[in-house]
Every structure is written in C-alpha cells, then in structure tokens.
Amino acid sequence: MLCNVQQKIPCVFETVILEGSSAKRQYQQFNVLAGDIPWLWARHDIKPNKAGLRKQKQKGKLKHFTKCEQNESQCSGAGEQRPTSQSDATDGVTILWDLEKDFKTKPAEWIPASGVKLVDGVPQPDDNGHIPGWVPVDAKSRQHCWHLSVVNLEKGFAFILQRRDDHLEIVTCDMAELCGCTLELIGTNVNGNPYKLGCKQIPLHLLIRHGSIPISADLLIDRSQLARWFVDCEDGKIEGIVWHCGEGQLFKIHRHHLQLPWPVDDPKLSMLPVTIRISHTDDEPNALFKNLSDLNNSTFSSLMVICK
C-alpha cells in the first residue's frame, strides 16, 4: 500500500471554491468541489509575515533565556520553573499567533493539506510556524513554469519517472489515474538538481509518485546500521527512506538526520538505465514533449545523459 505525502505535489481534480457553509466541516465557510478535469496542485505553505517573523525571533530569545534560567536553577539547586504562559512540552516556549495579522495572505483557491489541525474550522500553523496547503497550478504563472512543463492540462497527461524491474522508464500517464496521489517534482531547475537531469539549454523535469521506487535492502530500524548502509552500499546513494505503513502512517529517515551529506556524487536513481516510452500525442507539444518524443523507445545508460 502506497501512502500519500501531504507535503508535496498532489494530482487531484480541478476544484471550484464556493462560498457557503461546508457540509463536511461545521465552521468552514466555503466548499471545495471537484470538477471533472484532472489537475496538478502545488504545495503552498502559508508562512508568517514580518509581524509573525518578529514573534518567531522573540520565541528564539525566550527559548534561549528559558534554557539559561534552567541551567542556573540546576546549578544553584533552586526550584523555580519556567513561566507557564510561555511553556509547552516541546521546547518550553509557544507563540500566541494572530492568524489574521501574523501570516501572509492565502491565495484565493488555497486549501489546507490533509492532517493540518483545525480549530473552529480554521487551519492552524505547525511547529515551524507554517500552515501546509495546496494551490492549483496556474497555467499563466511563472512560479509554476516547471510544474507546467511536466503536464498537458488540456489533454490530461503527465510525464512520470517510474521503476520497472532493474531499470527506469519515462512514460506519459493519464492524470485521471493519478488523482489523489502525491508526487515529487525533480529536474534541472528544482532543488539544485541533485539527479543531474538535463541542462540549462535543454531542461528536463519529471514527476515521481511517492513510494513507487522501492529499495531492496532488508534493513533494521537501527541508526548505526542505516548510517553504514547509506555510506557503504551503492543502493544507499539516495536522499532518504520513507516507510509506508498499513494504516496510512509514514516514517522517514533523511541523510541529514544521520549527519550525512546530500546531494552525493552519482546518486542511485541517476545511475539506472532508463527507457523512454511516450504513448500520448500532442498537436502543440511543449519543449519537453518534443524532446522526449524524438527519443521515444530509446534506452539510455542513465538519466544524466538524456537531453545533453
């Protein structure tokens, strides 16, 4: 069973936001209704504005001050406790957010991600001070240009990188088959391009469904063993591991959690042979479609040599 990662790129039907009381949530004064067009959505967190950032900065000062007080109390044997108005079970300091004044404005069609805490129907910030959510990819937005390069919204298909036995495939897939799934956008202009796809002159971007590229190693959940595997094994040249559990829970380990560097030279994903299989047609192809169509049914030694 593959679980969805509600902090990345989901593919769902295009939705319409209508004012009015929600039938699902008593306090929500809008309805999110599904249309009949599959659509790509991009993650969009609502983050603190300048006023909110000042509160976060003040939290850091209070946290440092609280720790200093605790250290002094331990040294002197005093029994004083940190102020309860600023304490919680995590780091001793909480922020009293003003959700109307401390955060940037939400886009009109923004919706909260699954799992975001709601209080009276209002999405609440997480421990990082962000409210995770989604916006539909805007076909006219430069901000979404690389998302748009991997989909044809009119014909409803996307470019997907998937595992097939001991090699990879770049395929076109109907977006209707991906509805409700979450995917990762990788490529030339995304996150520093750790997989070394394409080049400036011929950028290459692809979507990978979360959980679709398994690892074959039988690993114990042991910190030292995992660290050795990441360092010593060729299969360990990956960014991290996500465990998909039967009840929809997700657990992950990233190389950074083990104080290991990322990116690495010759990551595992980039070193597998890859075949291009384009099954859709497009009368007005974008650059990616044209480039990959010209290479259709070709096999390459790795992702790194395509579009170079």
UniProtKB/TrEMBL annotation:
Secreted among keywords: no
Pfam families in the record: RLIG1
Keyword tags: ATP-binding, Ligase, Nucleotide-binding, RNA repair
Entry's EC annotation: 6.5.1.3
Domain of life of the source: Eukaryota
Cofactor: Mg(2+); Mn(2+)
Reaction it catalyzes: ATP + (ribonucleotide)n-3'-hydroxyl + 5'-phospho-(ribonucleotide)m = (ribonucleotide)n+m + AMP + diphosphate
Enzyme class: ligase
One GO-annotated biological process of the protein: response to reactive oxygen species
Keyword Lyase annotated: no
Listed GO MF terms: ATP binding; RNA ligase (ATP) activity
Function description: Functions as an RNA ligase, in vitro. The ligation reaction entails three nucleotidyl transfer steps. In the first step, the RNA ligase reacts with ATP in the absence of nucleic acid to form a covalent ligase-AMP intermediate and release pyrophosphate. In step 2, the ligase-AMP binds to the nucleic acid and transfers the adenylate to the 5'-PO4 terminus to form an adenylylated intermediate. In step 3, the RNA ligase directs the attack of the 3'-OH on the 5'-phosphoanhydride linkage, resulting in a repaired 3'-5' phosphodiester and release of AMP.
The name this protein goes by in its record: RNA ligase 1
Originating organism: Paralvinella palmiformis
